[in-house]
Design a protein that fits this description.
This protein is α+β, with helices and mostly antiparallel strands. The protein has one domain: Nucleoside diphosphate kinase-like domain (Alpha-Beta Plaits, 2-Layer Sandwich), CATH 3.30.70.141. The chain is about 40% helix and about 15% strand. A four-stranded antiparallel β-sheet has the order 2-3-1-4. α3 packs across α4. The radius of gyration is 14 Å and the shape is globular. The model has no long low-confidence stretch (mean pLDDT about 95). The protein binds adenosine-3',5'-cyclic-monophosphate. The site of adenosine-3',5'-cyclic-monophosphate has 9 residues, from α4.
């Protein structure tokens, strides 16, 4: 299994606000290679499936409604130490706690509308990449 890939989604509020290009620029500047990318919109059912691990959390309903509310950009990113390095680049879940220079510090509006998702483990990176992309859609 690849240990150098992660899956991101640029979330609906960031896409709607026109931040997609700036966020992709930050990702490339940080040394990630884009292996696959698409503009898509999740149904409530698909958003629920993606975040199933959070099903028992109080914010699950809000999260599913929000993530299906508009277009997102999903991408598979490659870099040495991709999962940890990408989580450092996006910053803390709560933008109030995100470090200066991170994607969430610059673009997130709240804990829910937090600009970008990043996989939290190599195993989940693989699962989440397969959720959005078929093997044929990955370059290289
Ligand atoms: P993400 O990295 O996509 O993974 C799970 C998501 O749940 C997280 O980003 C947030 O968007 C959302 N989330 C986590 N905690 C909260 C919270 N307390 N309230 C609302 N949404 C949350």
């Amino acid at each position: 299994m690849a240990t150098n890939r992660t899956l991101t989604m640029i979330k609906p509020e960031a896409v709607a606000a026109g931040h997609t290009g700036k966020i992709i620029d930050m990702i490339i500047e940080a040394g990630f290679k884009v292996k696959a990318m698409k503009l898509t919109q999740l149904s409530k059912e698909r958003a629920g499936e993606f975040y199933e691990v959070h099903k028992e959390r109080p914010f699950y309903g809000e999260l599913v409604d929000y993530m299906s509310s508009g277009p997102i950009v999903a991408a598979v990113l490659e870099k040495e130490n991709a999962v940890a390095d990408f989580r450092a680049l996006i910053g803390a879940t709560d933008p109030a706690e995100a470090a200066e220079g991170t994607i969430r510090k610059k673009f997130a509006k709240s804990k829910a509308e937090n600009a970008a998702h990043g996989s939290d483990s190599d195993d989940n990176a693989e699962i989440e990449s397969n959720f959005h992309f078929s093997a044929k859609e990955l370059v290289g």
